[in-house]
Specification:
three-stranded antiparallel β-sheet; 16 strands; 2 domains; 23% helix
């Protein structure tokens, strides 16, 4: 009996020694944790569209990795979404087309009649795009990819810069819904331009308004600046209206504080080029366009967050 107990104890000691020796010589391997998924943000908007009294409210939403992309649309053009790739500043676009009036029978027919002229060297292509529709047409050239697909009540048009893999995921996340809507209400606003025929004085600050009709929106001041940056219409240009704001000028943000002061921040192109007279005219166009609204009593301008010195020749 004593020998048996001794044997068992020796066996246990040998087993323990072997086990810890194994751990020392063969440490337990650790499994690398999977990389965290990119944090997704959502971008959503809606707009009303219609034809011959039949109006629909179109609501859409995208999911996107906010550390890699930025999505936005204008108040005056909610059916167009810009998708900026933050790593290379490439701009992709997604637009929505209401097919109620045109009646195009397919995505291919829509491309042939509406967009082929924008990319004459584009040819039918294959990519990894998949969406819950059987009517998809894709075209590409060396630098661009176009994807058109049917989506009630019309078509979605994606214009992407190559490479498109990450952008495709954003497009494929699209969710669209539509519902009956009443006719939208419109409001008249003013946009200020120069016009030497009406105001020939060379003070560099003489601006005159043109009236525009837009759908009523709580962001009416933002809408007015968007129209200002879009420049005069063809008819307005023919009547002598001009703008000192250079192409590419854009609004970064607009806010109105409790003292009725509007803080308007613009991109760097807004103050690019031009002499002192041009700069003075730009400031006059912006300020007069904003001061038409009773909720704005004063204005602070900035360029990419900087208030001084700005709008200098």
């Amino acid at each position: 009996m004593k020998k048996t107990i001794i044997f068992i104890l020796l066996f246990l000691l040998a087993t323990i020694a072997a086990y810890f020796g194994f751990i020392k010589n063969n440490p337990i391997s650790t499994v690398n944790a999977p990389s965290p998924s990119p944090e997704l943000a959502t971008f959503s908007n809606s707009y009303v569209v219609g034809y011959e009294g039949d109006f629909q409210n179109i609501a859409y939403q995208f999911s996107y990795p906010k550390d890699k992309f930025s999505l936005k649309s204008k108040v005056t053009l909610p059916s167009l979404v810009t998708i900026e790739n933050l790593s290379n500043n490439q701009i992709n676009t997604v637009s929505f087309f209401y097919n109620g009036a045109a009646g195009f029978p397919s995505a291919k027919d829509f491309w042939e009649n509406q967009y082929k002229s924008q990319c004459p060297d584009c040819l039918p292509s294959l990519n990894n795009f998949s969406y819950k529709t059987n009517d998809v047409a894709t075209y590409s050239n060396i630098t661009d990819e176009w994807i058109i697909f049917a989506q009630t009540p019309g078509f979605v048009i994606a214009h992407l810069k190559k490479p498109v893999d990450e952008s495709l995921k954003i497009i494929q996340s699209l969710q669209v819904s539509s519902s009956k809507s009443s006719m939208p209400e419109f409001v008249s606003i003013k946009v200020y331009f120069a016009n030497n025929k009406i105001k020939p004085e060379k003070t560099c600050k003489e601006v005159v308004p043109v009236e525009r009709q837009i759908i009523t929106t709580p962001k009416i001041a933002t809408a007015a600046l968007e129209l200002l940056f879009a420049g005069p219409t063809q008819d307005e240009s023919d009547s002598g209206y001009t703008s000192s704001l250079p192409p590419g000028s854009d609004l970064n943000s607009l806010s109105i504080d409790s003292n009725d002061n509007a803080h308007a921040d613009f991109n760097s192109l807004t103050e690019s080029g031009g002499g002192s007279c041009s700069m003075a005219m730009r400031v006059a166009q912006i300020k007069q366009t904003l001061l038409q609204f009773p909720t704005i009593k004063s204005i602070t301008l900035s360029i990419d967050g900087q208030t001084q010195p700005i709008f200098q020749p």
